């Protein structure tokens, strides 16, 4: 689908995406690149990163892949430093790395709960924390008065409650809270905007593939637009937030779910 944004909307910007090798993270990387950004993608699996980098290069996007796990502080430090060193600056951080599996609360071990909290919530905070010195106004390659932006990929599970996803729901609730707190503190002190995107059910993603067919069809019934979203929809929301179009939006988690949030869970 053709983008409604100008091709050079992000010209000269450098973006780092966790979980950028696949799924929604990869689509955001592709679209940021298509709109002029240089892109670094971080992920745990080398083969996935290699193929994502090859695909981004094929589209003419300046890109590097950096192996790392957002749960490890030393990986976060190395990846942020490597990105800034390679491209000379960092303007956009997208936290898209996430862990998920369906499990009843009574069958989930505390370590299973902790694992998803560590990837989604602590990982998001760690990456933001390490990227701050580059994102803030006056950071490497930046104007003294102009900071960068952070986009945290969230979910809608915790708006009500979602079966068998107590860990992800808690983790994404924390992510939304992190978004607001950093928007307040870092917007004030460093001219950094911090926002989130909460995708609803999106076609061809790991999140959706875990649902049973009957769960997907009942999802349709709850959506005023009566269709699944595309990864492209999430990427366009990211372009809006990362480009000048979204420069006065701060602390907001933008819902991109076809209006599914309007309905209560049907179980
Ligand atoms: C119950 C499980 C489990 C499962 C792991 N655990 N998988 N418990 N059911 N299916 C438990 C383990 O028993 C262990 O606890 C703990 O979690 C850590 O497991 P490990 O396998 O050692 O961890 P690790 O290798 O680090 O892998 C973590 C992972 C990861 C979260 C399971 O493999 C992963 O992220 N996979 C899915 C990635 C994914 O789908 N990403 C897209 C997310 S979609 P014990 O107690 O035994 O030590 C998304 C959208 C949300 O986020 C909205 C959807 C609608």
Automatic annotation (TrEMBL):
Annotated SUPFAM superfamilies: NAD(P)-binding Rossmann-fold domains (SSF51735)
Highest taxon listed in the record's lineage: Eukaryota
MF terms in GO: 2,4-dienoyl-CoA reductase (NADPH) activity
InterPro entries in the cross-refs: DECR2-like, NAD(P)-bd_dom_sf, SDR_fam
Gene3D superfamilies the UniProt entry points to: NAD(P)-binding Rossmann-like Domain (3.40.50.720)
Enzyme class: oxidoreductase
Gene Ontology biological process: fatty acid catabolic process
Catalytic activity: a (2E,4E)-dienoyl-CoA + NADPH + H(+) = a 4,5-saturated-(3E)-enoyl-CoA + NADP(+); a (2E,4Z)-dienoyl-CoA + NADPH + H(+) = a 4,5-saturated-(3E)-enoyl-CoA + NADP(+)
A family per Pfam: adh_short_C2
Any one of the GO CC terms: peroxisome
Classification via PANTHER family: 2,4-DIENOYL-COA REDUCTASE [(3E)-ENOYL-COA-PRODUCING], PEROXISOMAL 2,4-DIENOYL-COA REDUCTASE
Protein name as catalogued: 2,4-dienoyl-CoA reductase [(3E)-enoyl-CoA-producing]
Organism annotation: Punica granatum
